């Protein structure tokens, strides 16, 4: 696992490579929680002459028993003080120079003692925590200028197919490459660093060169996974001596997807089928978990939601069907908790359904009836950090 230290701003959205321990007590000194008066012992108290105690100053003079001094929220509590009284709960008799409490005063009230939140050296967050804005705030408070984060897994994207155009309208049997613009941002949302897609056509030699020359942690290929005349992925992996770990999955769309490891601890390879929704299946079920592991992210718990409508199933394979989440209580629905609505345009060559979807429903062989709870695979941007930047096409 590679770890890099990044300034707080740059660490946003990354994953902690080491546990974060406090570099200081928090708060670092006894602190007033309110604007008011620091008092010592039982009242009434003699008001100390001179100005009050403000935040951002060194240790104030000790407060003798029977005295009170004005204090601001965040200021250091003077030694010997026993409580803070909020300004709205005290009456200062300026003529007599005395402070009276208007409510009972308990020992230590409105004093945040040093180390109340944590002691120096105490574990704050485990390795694997995603660095959110709140984590940045905690890290800064705890004394960090830089954070140890996992290096992003590096991903190469190889788009196969002689029939693909990168601009303009389809013509003469050529179609637009829908996967080149999609895979990079998708794997980036999974926490990876992605090189721009390399479009290799249906050229086995170019594929061999790209695979053997890659310095990535993961290579994602699109197309060429089946057994057609120009489907070279299996042949080239065989020639390289790669280990095929998954060679086809009983799922529709996406059944020809594959997972391999190139020799000598080389890159992982996820081979996505060329049909675009089949490629999405492989992204969610193979590339996603693999990249999550490489990036050190803790997988979310699987969850199930009822489907609103009957969903047609494949006779012997699992189906993945694009769905949207909907709140219950819509007219004509059975009530209860949230449900998902299956979308049309879910054929293997179509992206129209998934482009409108929140996730994919896992539909068991034979299909499911309306109201059945099914597992939902979220799309990565549902939980992705919107502050990640990048350019992928
Ligand atoms: N005899 C059989 N033929 C096929 C089977 C099968 O079981 N037996 N499975 C079908 C299924 S299911 C899939 S999925 C595809 C997988 O094929 P490949 O991974 O080899 O993909 P290609 O043949 O290269 O392309 C399939 C399809 O997708 C289009 N495509 C490819 N790349 C892109 C892209 N970047 N953007 C948009 N569209 C793309 C390509 O033009 C083809 O139409 O095999 C079936 N055949
Ligand atoms: O697996 Mo294919 O993926 O049904 O389009």
List the keywords:
Molybdopterin biosynthesis moea protein, domain 2; Molybdopterin biosynthesis moeA protein, domain 3; 4 domains; seven-stranded mixed β-sheet; six-stranded mixed β-sheet; 7 helices; disordered C terminus; binds ligand LQZAQKY5; MoaB/Mog_dom; MoeA_linker/N_sf; Molybdopterin molybdenumtransferase
Concise description?
The chain is α/β, with parallel strands linked by helices and 393 residues long.
What would you note in describing this structure?
There is one protein chain. Helices cover 17% and strands 28% of the residues. It has 393 residues and is of the alpha/beta class. Helix 4 (204-213) crosses helix 5. The two termini are 28 Å apart. The relative contact order is 0.12. Residues 384-393 have low confidence and may be disordered. The site of ligand LQZAQKY5 has 24 residues, from helix 6.
CATH superfamily of the largest domain: MoaB/Mog-like domain
Distinct ligands: ligand LQZAQKY5, molybdate ion
Shape: elongated
**CA-to-CA gap between the ends?**
28 Å
CATH architecture name of the largest domain: 3-Layer(aba) Sandwich
Radius of gyration: 31 Å
**CATH domain class of the largest domain:** Alpha Beta
- Total number of beta strands: 27
Helix- and strand-based class?
alpha/beta
Helix content: 10-25%
- Main sheet record: 7 strands, mixed
Which parts are unreliable, with pLDDT below 50 for 5 consecutive residues or more? 384-393
Please tell me the overall pLDDT: 93
Number of distinct helices: 7
Cofactor: Mg(2+)
Domain MoaB/Mog: 156-293
Protein name: Molybdopterin molybdenumtransferase
Organism: Streptomyces drozdowiczii
């Amino acid at each position: 696992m590679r770890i890099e230290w990044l300034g707080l701003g740059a660490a946003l959205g990354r994953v902690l490579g080491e546990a974060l321990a406090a570099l200081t007590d928090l708060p670092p000194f006894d602190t007033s929680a309110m604007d008011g008066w620091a008092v010592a012992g039982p009242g009434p108290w003699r008001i100390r002459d001179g100005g009050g105690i403000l935040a951002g100053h060194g240790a104030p003079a000790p407060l003798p028993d029977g005295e009170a001094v004005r204090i601001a929220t965040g200021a250091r509590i003077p030694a010997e003080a026993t409580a803070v009284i909020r300004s709205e709960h005290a009456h200062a008799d300026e003529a007599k120079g005395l402070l009276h409490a208007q409510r009972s005063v308990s020992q230590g009230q409105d004093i945040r003692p040093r180390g109340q939140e944590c002691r120096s050296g105490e574990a704050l967050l485990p390795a694997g925590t995603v660095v959110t804005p709140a984590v940045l705030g905690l890290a800064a408070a705890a004394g960090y200028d830089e954070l140890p984060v996992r290096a992003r897994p590096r991903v190469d994207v190889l788009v196969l197919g002689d029939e693909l155009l990168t601009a303009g309208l389809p013509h003469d049997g050529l179609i637009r490459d829908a996967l080149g613009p999609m895979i990079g941002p998708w794997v980036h949302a999974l926490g990876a660093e992605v090189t721009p897609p390399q479009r290799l056509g249906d050229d086995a030699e170019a594929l061999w060169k790209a695979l053997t020359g890659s310095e990535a942690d993961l290579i994602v290929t699109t197309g060429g996974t089946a057994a057609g005349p120009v489907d070279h992925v299996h042949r080239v992996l065989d020639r390289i001596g790669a280990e095929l770990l998954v060679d086809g999955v009983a799922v529709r769309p996406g059944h020809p997807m594959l997972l391999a490891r190139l020799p000598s601890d080389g890159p992982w390879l996820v081979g996505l089928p060329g049909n675009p929704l089949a490629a999405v299946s492989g992204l969610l079920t193979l590339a996603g978990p693999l990249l999550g592991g490489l990036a050190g992210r803790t997988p979310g718990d699987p969850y199930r939601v009822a489907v609103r409508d009957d969903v047609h199933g494949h006779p012997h394979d699992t189906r993945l069907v694009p769905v949207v989440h909907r709140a219950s209580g819509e007219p004509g629905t059975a009530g209860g908790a949230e449900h998902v609505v299956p979308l049309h345009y879910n054929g293997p060559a179509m992206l129209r359904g998934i482009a409108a979807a929140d996730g994919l429903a896992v539909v068991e062989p034979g299909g499911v009836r309306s109201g059945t709870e099914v597992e939902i695979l979220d799309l990565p941007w549902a939980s992705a950090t919107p502050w990640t930047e990048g350019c992928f096409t």
